[in-house]
Specification:
homodimer, about 325 residues, alpha/beta, 13 helices, 9 strands, globular
Chain lengths: ~325, ~325
Amino acid sequence: MIELVQPLLNGDRRALARVLTGVENQQAGDVLAAVYPHTGRAHIIGVTGAPGTGKSTLVAALAGGYRAQHKTVGILAVDPTSPFSGGAVLGDRIRMQSLAGDKGVFIRSMASRGSLGGLASAALDAIRVLDAAGMDVVIVETVGAGQSEVDIARAAHTTLVVEAPGLGDEIQAIKAGLLEIADVLVVNKADRPGAENAVRALRMMLDIGHPVERHHGRFIAASPVSVAEPPPMWIPPVIATVASKGEGIDELLVAISDHHRFLVDHHMLGRLEQEQIEVEICERLRNVLVDRLLESLPQGALMEVVRQVQARQVTPQRAVEVLLGQGHI
Amino acid sequence: MIELVQPLLNGDRRALARVLTGVENQQAGDVLAAVYPHTGRAHIIGVTGAPGTGKSTLVAALAGGYRAQHKTVGILAVDPTSPFSGGAVLGDRIRMQSLAGDKGVFIRSMASRGSLGGLASAALDAIRVLDAAGMDVVIVETVGAGQSEVDIARAAHTTLVVEAPGLGDEIQAIKAGLLEIADVLVVNKADRPGAENAVRALRMMLDIGHPVERHHGRFIAASPVSVAEPPPMWIPPVIATVASKGEGIDELLVAISDHHRFLVDHHMLGRLEQEQIEVEICERLRNVLVDRLLESLPQGALMEVVRQVQARQVTPQRAVEVLLGQGHI
């Protein structure tokens, strides 16, 4: 695929599409290596939240806003669920059809094929490819509210968590458990009953969250020892939007831009990226190591320990020790 | 903690509580090993679904149903989100207060502390402890709809996926992406408008899902080659409930029991357990291996490759190779 590198860097859409397919099929290693020095320019925005909050419509509205600012936008919709999600992908595309035909926007959906670890690293690679292709903004939308979505959202510089009124009571809202990764909170569908309450509840929740120290815009546990120079605090704003009507989008664009400026002004962008790279490397190591160990095991060794565990002769913990003794890296 | 083994096996509630705390703090290895031969008796039921579907109320209603059948019930509420989820745990307990004071029910909440891998294995260990303590039924409720919740739900013999009307349109329902792990689909809050549509949409979706072969009650991709003897098929029933009023619970109990009988009659329980054990062992291996490699690295080696990746001098993929060369297991 190496012949696609130069067209990709020139922003050629067909090259971009083909490289992204290569990334999904784990066949783009050489292209990734070649374009990697050209990454690091885009502002990466993560958008996550429970189903039903209108994330795709919001992403389309945001993209429209950036287009009005003459910025190019790459959209990556990541669905960590299953083969069944073909329908969801189609749905997203329908919702984003307002963007169709605009050469300044590139939309791509990625669904899980096989392991989740595989999806997360493919998503990171896809973000880099969109970045290298010259997108000013890359928006990564993840479906659902589980840890995997959180992990993918954390690859962003600015993470939007989207809520909507009427999805459940306040306790359920906390349950979604996304507050602490939010740099900007969005209450979408704000023309529905209960929107003001939702905004108020979220603002209150952020107050209850104190005292916590914030660190490049994310909560960390308050340290028991006093620190000489506490890091500057970013308090996530709560923005009400009606994405389907374009309401609140300008305010949201300002909030996102404020957060980016906060990171830059306080020299936090580099530290954030450093942490993200460390997490990514450890995840990749994890996957490579287990693959190597399993390949090195004698024929049938794994099945034999599984049989013993199932027969309640050994615990799963002990089985792991046995396999570590039998294999090598 | 080894002195707790006999009381635990006798069903002593204080011993059970203390061992579960030990499991959460990863300090119960000896107890787990001692009680492991006494596990494998309980019927393990996973309950998952998006926030707002009323899972906790449904779990409480199910537990009440089993109590009426004189079965003992362990409930494990697993929240793969964050420290913030203390509130959710409290909320669950409030919702389940109808069960308070019943010695035949034991409720425990587990929240994420540190790594998700840690939570998933702690949850598996906690299920085994409840099983060893003599619970006839162990209900594992997970919050959210991400891969991590799916992984935990897969540890069950029978997985319930809970939906509710009005949480979003059909596309969103597919998006939750939980259909293919469902052994029984529940449309809770069925007294709300749209419930019949939701039931119909889910039944239709299951039809669209064909032709797929089903395998111990879960979807797998249809094989392109014809198989001499196709595995028997379990078609997940769709049950409408109003858990808060106890409506539909009897029907749901029958559906769960039908699924369990299906697994037993077709000798699928053993195969299911075998697959679950294999997944668990590989996950545990993954965590142990990366920990060992990182510990073996020369001082500062990880930070140095992170720096090089951040400076765009090497790709994350190359960084992994470098670390594999510098460390050992």
